[in-house]
């Protein structure tokens, strides 16, 4: 991984960066069965070609970043499937390799790169709650100390930070404690690594555990390893308030990639309720106006949503 900040370099030449959309729910939409504790990481073993193709389709749709299928990948999770530590590390590295291969395939597609910058790959680092596979990333309250959380994250960070991605995407973090634990771990043990840290939030001002997001943003603001701060897998209606609160706490770029507006039922492992009926690209205009500069989608969003955003912003820029 480069020691430079790829997001700063990107935003120095472009006003915005388009993130990809959902990976796991898009894989399900294409027929994959992810009712498994490993979620999308299961397909690293069973259907890697499908993961690669979803990455390609997001790049073709207009995404400037592919986020890898390592969100729910962990040494403990793979161990429960009978894999040893080296096999687990190989699968984590494979998640980055698939995204890099997809980027190369996109970049070699005639006409695809017209007017585009060479896109990025972000290695997904899911929260501790994701490994529990019980929806804890939407609640927090793990009952662990900062040191225990660092002990959990350290081995996976060691693999993913050296797997060839441009940066890390620390995602769906439900509490200040875990955000602090990962950010301090990056600063002390991975000083050349860039990462964005993205929270899951329960309303327009607080993380899922209840911490004020303005305070979290302020705490992370001084750490050079943190390239951007934001929110993901949160209802779109909360984003304008969250962006405003984060911008009060940080001078770093703010990123947002919400879910489609439904609520996850962790017991049944299904999404319930209805998606936000507003066009995704129109909502994204509001998020950009509030101050977000990196925008994409999370669960239940699709390449069509990202393409709508890309075409809207491309036509506006023209």
Automatic annotation (TrEMBL):
Which molecular function terms from Gene Ontology are attached? methyltransferase activity
Q: What class of enzyme is it?
A: transferase
Q: Which domain of life is it from?
A: Bacteria
Q: Locate the Hcy-binding domain: which residues?
A: 5-313
Q: Where does Zn(2+) bind?
A: 233, 298-299
Q: What is its EC number?
A: 2.1.1.10
Could you mention a single GO BP entry for this protein? methylation
Required co-factors: Zn(2+)
Keywords on record: Metal-binding, Methyltransferase, Transferase, Zinc
* Record's keyword annotation contains Kinase: no
State if Cell division is listed as a keyword: no
Name assigned to this protein: Homocysteine S-methyltransferase
């Amino acid at each position: 991984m480069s020691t430079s900040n790829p997001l700063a370099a990107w935003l120095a030449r472009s006003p915005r960066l388009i993130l990809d959309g959902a990976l796991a729910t898009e894989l399900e939409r294409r027929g994959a069965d992810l009712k498994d504790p490993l979620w999308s990481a299961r397909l690293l073993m069973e259907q890697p070609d499908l993961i690669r193709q979803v990455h390609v389709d997001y790049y073709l749709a207009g995404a400037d970043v592919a986020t890898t299928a390592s969100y729910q990948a962990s040494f403990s999770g793979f161990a429960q499937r009978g894999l040893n530590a080296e096999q687990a590390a190989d699968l984590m590295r494979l998640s980055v390799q698939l995204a890099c291969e997809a980027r190369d395939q996109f970049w070699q597609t005639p006409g695809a790169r017209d007017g585009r910058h060479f896109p990025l790959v972000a290695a997904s680092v899911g929260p501790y709650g994701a490994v529990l596979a019980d929806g804890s990333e939407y609640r927090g309250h793990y009952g662990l100390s900062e040191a225990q959380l660092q002990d959990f994250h350290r081995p996976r960070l060691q693999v993913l930070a050296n797997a060839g991605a441009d940066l890390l995407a620390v995602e769906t973090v439900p509490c200040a404690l875990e955000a602090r634990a990962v950010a301090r771990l990056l600063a002390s043990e991975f000083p050349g690594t860039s990462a964005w840290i993205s929270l899951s939030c329960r309303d327009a001002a607080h993380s899922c555990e209840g911490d004020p997001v303005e305070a979290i943003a302020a705490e992370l603001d001084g750490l050079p390893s943190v390239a951007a701060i934001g929110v993901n897998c949160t209802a779109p209606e909360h984003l304008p308030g969250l962006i405003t609160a984060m911008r009060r706490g940080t001078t770093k770029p703010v990123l947002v990639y919400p879910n489609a507006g439904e609520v996850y039922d962790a017991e049944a492992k299904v999404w319930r309720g209805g998606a936000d009926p507003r066009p995704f690209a129109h909502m994204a205009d509001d998020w950009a106006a509030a101050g977000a500069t990196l925008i994409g989608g999370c669960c239940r969003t699709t390449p069509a949503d990202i393409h709508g955003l890309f075409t809207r912003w491309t036509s506006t820029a023209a």
